[in-house]
Design brief:
This protein has a single domain, classed as Beta Barrel (Porin), CATH 2.40.160. The strands form two sheets. The chain has an eight-stranded antiparallel β-barrel with strand order 1-3-4-5-7-12-13-15. It has a two-stranded antiparallel ribbon with strand order 10-11. The two termini are about 35 Å apart. The longest helix is centred in the N-terminal third of the chain and has 18 residues. It is mainly beta and about 240 residues long. A hairpin with a 6-residue loop joins strand 10 and strand 11.
Length: about 240
Amino acid sequence: MKKVLLLLIMGICFLCVANAQIRLGVEAGGSVSFMHVQNNAAIGRGFGGLVLDVPVYQNIEIQTGFDYTSKGARRLTGESPKGGEHFYERVDMINLRYLELPIRVAYRFRLSRVFSLVPSFGWYFGVGIDSNSPVHVTTMYGYGGGYDHYINRKWENPFKQLEMENEDTSYKSVYKPFDRFDHGMQFRLTADISHVCINLSYDYGLHRIWDGFSEPVKVRGRNNKVSNQCLMLSLGYKFFL
């Protein structure tokens, strides 16, 4: 009896999807990205991808696709506690590129024959591909009230560990790599006008993608808990299948 009921439910779901209108399209736009710590500045980049809207039941849909996007921050700073030997470190132009898979549940409000508003909520999963440009890393350290030594390097691949050493003092800073894996919540509001769509999305990362600066330096405000956040606006075109 349970098997018959399960097959019946699966059959109803299949008929609902088969009789509904699936939307497949492309999108491209711009984003403003920052990292979830205090004292960092946002960075703007573009993104693009494929979108797929699959109706499930009446006005409820499952939305997914693939996105190629850039995330990061213009600057992260950190410093050691006051007193004795003290450090100041800065990472500039963090621009990490990801391939992401979003999965959202959406509800379609049909306001006219050709116009709909579609809010959605779900999860995204991302894998880091590379960095769009080298990350600039600066370390200053000293005793008392000033900084006596200065190191500046380019971090060509932030998904790999970086070691910086001052030749005069042999002081070495070790920066752990950014984690390639990222995931978090995604919110989106879509305006569908016939085949054209306008999307406003917000990603709230829940995964710590970086452990922060070398000890004893701490990222200001969040004790090294660095995660992605990104606001995106895009324009797309969908085909009805």
